[in-house]
Amino acid sequence: MAKHTSWGIGGYADLFYSPKSREGLVSFLSTIDANVPITWIGKGTNILVRDAGIRGVVISTKSFLKGIEKISEYLYRVEAGVTSLELALFCQKNGIGPAAFFSGIPGSIGGALTMNAGSFGMETWDLVKEVEVINSKGNISFIEKESFGIAYRTVTLPFRLWFLSCSMFLSSDEKTTKDNLIELRNQRIKTQPLSEDTCGSVFKNPPGNFAGALIEESGLKGFKIGSASISEQHANFIVNEGGATARDIEDLIQHARQVVKKNYDIDLQPEVRIIGEA
Ligand SMILES: Cc1cc2nc3c(=O)[nH]c(=O)nc-3n(C[C@H](O)[C@H](O)[C@H](O)COP(=O)(O)OP(=O)(O)OC[C@H]3O[C@@H](n4cnc5c(N)ncnc54)[C@H](O)[C@@H]3O)c2cc1C
C-alpha cells in the first residue's frame, strides 16, 4: 500500500481493486463474500497503513468517479474520486464557490466527506445537500445530510456505506478567485512541510487549543523514532524521512500523546486513520 499513501508507508493488501465503471464496481461487490473485509481509500492522505498490510479487499477511487456536473443554478454533483484541488480549480474556472478552502487539501472528495475535511474556517459538509452511497452488496441510494452526525473531522454514518458522490451548494454569489487560491497556498507554504512525506495534521485540535502548539511547547519538534520525525516546521505533522515504518510512526504518535497528556492532562485524538495489521 506504500505507493497509495502520502506517507509512502504500508504493507500489501490481499486484493487491490481499482474500478473502471459503476457497473464494474456493482458487479465486483456482488461477488464478494459477506465475511471479506472491505476498505475504501481515496488518495491515502489521511491513513496510516500498518506494516503487515490490509486483509481483504481495498477499493481505490484514485482513477474513478471523476465527474463534476451542474444540477441546478446552486447545486452541483461532485463524484468521490474528484480531488479537492480539482474541485477548487473547477469552481475558480466557473466563477462559483465557496471552494478555495479545498485547494490545499490533497485528498479526494470521498475522503473529505468521510473526514469532514476543512480548512480556513470551512468544512466539507457545510456545502453538502445529499450524498450518493453504495453498500457492501452493491446497492446504491441517496441519503440526505440530516441522516449523518457531522462534527469537527468526524462523520457518523447511518449504516456501513461508501460515498460515490455528493450534491453541493456552490454558486456565483461566493466566487472562488485565483487570488483566494494563491493567498491560501502561500499561507500553507509558510506553515506546513509541503515538500515532505506526511499525512497532514496527525491529531485533531482539542477544544480551545491547538495540537501543534501543545506538541511544540512540549519540546518535541524534531523528535525522532526510526526514520519518522516530528516536523521542525509544524509540530502536528510527522515526516517520513525515508524508509520509516508504520511502527515508527505509530510509536511517535503514542509518544507525543503521552508527553502532552503528562504535561497538560490533554488526551490528543488522532485525526489520521490507522488501519491494517501490524
Ligand atoms: C500536506 C497535507 C495537508 C492536509 N491538509 C488538510 C487540511 O487542511 N484539512 C483537512 O481536513 N485535512 C487535511 N489533510 C488530510 C487529508 O488530505 C484529508 O483528510 C482528505 O480529505 C483525505 O482524503 P483522501 O482521499 O486522501 O482519503 P484517504 O486518506 O484515502 O481516506 C481517509 C478515510 O476516508 C475513507 N474513504 C476514502 N474514500 C472514501 C469513500 N469514497 N467512501 C467512504 N470512505 C472513504 C477511508 O476509508 C479512510 O477512512 C492534509 C493532508 C496532507 C498530506
Core attributes:
Uridine Diphospho-n-acetylenolpyruvylglucosamine Reductase, domain 3; alpha+beta; 5-stranded antiparallel β-sheet; binds flavin-adenine dinucleotide; 278 residues; single chain; Uridine Diphospho-n-acetylenolpyruvylglucosamine Reductase, domain 2; Uridine Diphospho-n-acetylenolpyruvylglucosamine Reductase, domain 1
Question: Could you spell the SSE succession in H and E letters?
Answer: EHEEEEEHHEEEEEEEHHEEEHE
Alpha-beta content class = alpha+beta
Number of helices: 6
Give the termini distance in whole angstroms: 13 Å
> What is the mean pLDDT?
97
Q: Would you tell me which CATH topology of the largest domain applies?
A: Uridine Diphospho-n-acetylenolpyruvylglucosamine Reductase, domain 3
According to CATH, what is the class of the largest domain?
Alpha Beta
Biggest sheet, strands in spatial order?
A: 5-6-13-9-10
Detailed description of the structure:
The chain has about 280 residues and is an alpha+beta fold. The protein folds into three domains: about 1-60, Uridine Diphospho-n-acetylenolpyruvylglucosamine Reductase, domain 2, CATH 3.30.43.10; about 70-180, Uridine Diphospho-n-acetylenolpyruvylglucosamine Reductase, domain 3, CATH 3.30.465.10; about 195-275, UDP-N-acetylenolpyruvoylglucosamine reductase, C-terminal domain (Uridine Diphospho-n-acetylenolpyruvylglucosamine Reductase, domain 1), CATH 3.90.78.10. The chain contains six helices and 17 strands. The chain has helices at about 20-30, 85-95, 110-115, 180-190, 210-215, 245-265; strands spanning about 15, 40, 45-50, 55-60, 70, 75-80, 120, 120-125, 130-135, 140-145, 150, 155, 160-170, 225, 230, 240, 275. A five-stranded antiparallel β-sheet has the order 5-6-13-9-10, covered by helices on one side. The chain has a three-stranded parallel β-sheet with strand order 1-4-2, with no helix packed on it. The relative contact order is 0.16. The structure holds flavin-adenine dinucleotide (FAD). Flavin-adenine dinucleotide binds near residues 192 and 198. The site of flavin-adenine dinucleotide has 33 residues, from strand 2, helix 3, strand 7 and strand 13.
